[in-house]
Design goal:
CATH architecture of the domain at 79-215: Alpha-Beta Complex
CATH superfamily of the domain at 79-215: Cysteine proteinases
Strand content: 25-35%
Number of helices: 4
Distance between the termini: 31 Å
Shape: globular
Length: about 220
């Protein structure tokens, strides 16, 4: 679905993207690349109904041999509704000829992440005037092995119940107060039936496959 926006704000974000300067090999860099402004030209031009009607005349005069008009355009995917729980799925495979190969590279990810540079300026559930949309890490899924075989384990943070987050999930209420620190709690490593306490630094050094963040309130 393409929504009609004011050209002045259509590609504006909640916070300035240019201040990011994300480090390559980080989640910030992945998000920056995924939400970058793309130019649609040549074979990627956009079909323009307005241009087509202007070229061919009124609809009732358009014959079956109507020629469609394509135009250069810009495309950018931004977040229009900040989720209560943010799940990031990292692509950990690449094509090597006719085969798939696992990507074992470590991707840096923070305990607290700000989605504002990747949200549209008119993000629906962000209070007016707020320029931060913060999330705290509470879960990581890690895969060890190859594309053919391997083992999944998880890191989970044990923390107190957040009633405000429940209100956001169930009722869609926007946060009234903003916290900037990660939710306090103890991290645990879960591998089948074995569970052990680990440090936050151990979690942040893991080879993440799935990342789970909860919105800070």
């Amino acid at each position: 679905e393409v929504s009609t926006e004011d050209p002045e704000t259509a590609f504006c974000t909640l916070a300035n993207r240019e201040d990011l300067n994300p480090e390559e090999g980080s989640v910030h860099h992945c998000l920056y690349q995924f939400t970058r402004n793309e130019k649609l030209t040549e074979t990627n031009k956009l079909l323009c109904d307005v241009c087509t009607q202007r070229h061919c005349g009124p609809k009732n005069n358009i014959k079956s041999e109507k020629k469609y008009v394509y135009t250069n355009a810009k495309k950018q995917m931004l977040i229009s509704l900040a989720p209560p729980v943010l799940t990031l799925h990292l692509k950990r495979f690449q094509h090597a000829g006719f085969n798939l190969r696992k990507v074992n590279r470590h991707i840096k990810f923070p305990e607290v992440i700000d989605l504002a540079p990747f949200c549209t300026a008119k993000c629906k559930n962000v209070p007016e005037g707020d320029r931060k949309v913060l999330y705290s890490l509470y879960g990581v899924v890690e895969h060890s092995g190859t594309m053919r075989s391997g083992h999944y384990t998880a890191y989970v943070k044990m923390r107190t119940t957040n009633n405000h987050l429940s209100d956001l999930v169930l009722r869609g209420q926007s946060p009234q107060a903003l916290e900037t620190e990660p939710v306090k709690g103890q991290w645990f490593h879960v591998s089948d039936t074995h569970v052990s306490a680990v440090s936050a630094s151990k979690v942040l050094s893991s080879q993440a496959y799935l990342l789970f963040y909860e919105r800070l309130l």
